[in-house]
Amino acid sequence: MTTISLKKSLQSVFSLLILLLLPVCISAQELDQVILKQDLLFRNVLSKKDYGVHGDIRKLQITNSNFGDKVTKYYETVYFSEAGVLTKKELYGEGEREAVETLLYHYNNNKLDSITNNSHTAKQVFIYDDQNKLIKKVSYGKYEENKDEIDEEETFHYNSENFIIKSVKSTNLVIECKYNKNNQIVQTKSFSTDSPKDIDVIEYQFRALTDKPDIIITKRNGKVQNTVLNKFDTKENTIETTIIFPDKTGRTTKNSLTYDNNGNIVSNITSNNEGKTGERIQKIEYQ
Q1: Whole-angstrom Cα distance, residue 207 to residue 227?
Q2: Residues 105, 97: contact at Cβ < 8 Å?
Q3: Averaged in consecutive runs of 10 residues, what is the pLDDT profile of the chain (287 residues)?
Q4: Using CA atoms, how far apart are residues 140 and 57, in angstroms rounded to an integer?
Q5: Which one of 37, 42, 181, 285 has the lowest number of neighbouring Cβ atoms within 10 Å?
Q6: Which long-range contacts (CB under 8 A, 24 or more apart) does 154-158 make?
C-alpha cells in the first residue's frame, strides 16, 4: 500500500553528496504536517517511521535474503538526518561493493522538493499549492538541462480535511479513496479511463486507531480475489499474514522478530508450512 517513487542536472554527484551530509533544516514531524497527512499509498518513504524504527538513528543497513531454489540477497543502506529525515538511500545487488543506484532526497522550505539518482536516469519532482498540500508528482526517466523526459505525472485531489480522495495519473489510471470517521483509509477504487468498467477495489478494516489494517479484501469487478488477515505483536509489528483465496484455500506466512534494546527490529525470519522463505537483517547505527 503503501506506497512507494522518483532537478536540475548536477555539476557533480560528489558535491551534491556533500550537501546532503549537511544538517537538514526539517523535522520528521514537520514532514508529517506537509506530506504525511495522507495514506502511505501515496507518499514516498521519507523517515524512520516508514522503516518501522525509532530513536536517534543515523544509518540503517538492511540485508534481504530470499530462499527458493537458491538463496538470493540484496542490500539497502539508508541515511537519516539528526531530525530523522531520509537524506540518501543506496541499493546493492548480491556480491556488489558499489551501489547499483543511489537515491538523493532534496528538501526546501519544510517540503520534499525532489528525489534524484546518481546516474541521472530517474527523478521525481513534487509540486505544492499555497497551503503546502502536495498537488502533483512528476516522474522523469532521464534528466538533463532542458532535455527532461517525463515518464508520468500524477495529480492529487483533497477533501476538506486535507486527505487525498483522488489521484489521477497521466497513464489514465485513477485512484479514488474513502475514509472512516477516524480518517483511516477504508477503501481504494482504481480504474483506467480507457476501460472504466474494469474496477479494482481494496477494502481495509482496522481494529482501532491503528495505522495498519488487520483485514484487507481485494475485489475485481465486484468479485473477491483474496482476503488478507494480519496479526500483530504488542509493538504493532506483523507476526502472521494469511491469504485466503476464493476457493477457500489459504497460505500463511509467519514472521519471527528479534528486537534490540531500543525496541527496534534487528531480524525478521519469514516462514510458511514448507519452511523458511526469507530473512531480513537490520544493522542500526545510532547517532
Answers
A1: 16
A2: no
A3: 32 29 50 50 76 92 89 92 90 84 88 87 88 89 71 91 90 93 90 94 89 92 96 94 95 96 96 93 95
A4: 31
A5: 181
A6: 156/38, 156/42, 158/133
